[in-house]
Amino acid sequence: MATDVNTDQALQALRLRIDNLDEKILELISDRARCAEEVARVKMASLPAGEQPVFYRPEREAQVLKRVMERNRGPLGNEEMARLFREIMSSCLALENPLKVAYLGPEGTFSQAAAMKHFGHAVISQPMAAIDEVFREVVAGAVNFGVVPVENSTEGAVNHTLDSFLEHDLVICGEVELRIHHHLLVGDATKTDRITRIYSHAQSLAQCRKWLDAHYPNVERVAVSSNADAARRVKSEWNSAAIAGDMAANLYDLTRLAEKIEDRPDNSTRFLIIGNQEVPPTGDDKTSVIVSMRNKPGALHELLVPFHHNGIDLTRIETRPSRSGKWTYAFFIDFVGHHRDPLIKDVLEKINQEAVALKVLGSYPKAVL
Prior knowledge:
Blueprint: H1 2-46, H2 58-71, H3 78-96, E1 100-104, H4 110-119, E2 124-128, H5 131-140, E3 145-152, E4 156-157, H6 159-167, E5 171-179, E6 183-186, E7 197-201, H7 202-207, H8 209-215, E8 220-224, H9 227-234, E9 240-244, H10 246-251, E10 255-258, E11 268-275, E12 285-293, H11 299-309, E13 314-321, E14 329-336, H12 342-354, E15 355-365
Helix pairs in contact: 1-3, 2-3, 11-12
């Protein structure tokens, strides 16, 4: 009996301490929010009439999150702590000026998950039917930023995104890396022993190819516009299943018949944040460019030599047909550094001397989370 009394007293003391800490956390978050409101007032007062201030600063957000992760001493992990701060920052920014963000929809896609991961849940997110529509919304000024997939660790580049960069003049302001987990989803009416078709996006079907071959070799695989669309279709069909992620499963209230069915456990997709504002250096940046070279022997070698001589780390290079002529190509290149860095400026100047065209898509902070 004495042991029970001691336990109750210890728990009561801990709960009281937690209550006191919660009050302090609440007070500090409120203080931070008031500071955000004051920042907005200062910015508005310092600008000429009619000019709009820049409320969202990608480089500032990245620096804050990096500092949080560097100073974190646990027991919460760095990524979990950074996610908590991301949501606080998102809510505080919404007090200054709520961001509008377009993403490849519909609701429940991995693109929406990437948008939430990068901007937090306080933004106004708007689903678009196609990648090019995301670009057009940003160009038109209907939204502040767009979120588009650019490459998957299993299936490679997303060509629609690369082609859209050839057509639109926008700036890459950031990147998001999202671990992709696919689940086999069914609805309440699904007869699980009589599934004859499985819906999903073509890339997702490809990312789960081996698992499907082993478990559903004779079932029709139907590619649709998005995983969320696949999940929506399953709600009204008794003989179908969908491959999609957690957001789609929760949105459409589907059951996970099998979880994490992707062929590679490290399956990830990289997304780009597109906008109209140039991002200053943070000290830990990447740059993306498009280069068109003359169609001659050794053209690719000439393009890569300046990077090698200056010790610049290339992280990705893709080739797409150029719009300037038949059998001509544009190179999409990502590398470490900011285009304002002296070494990077030297590389770009040398490339520009040999290239038919050089377009800097943007320099931006490396993905923090």
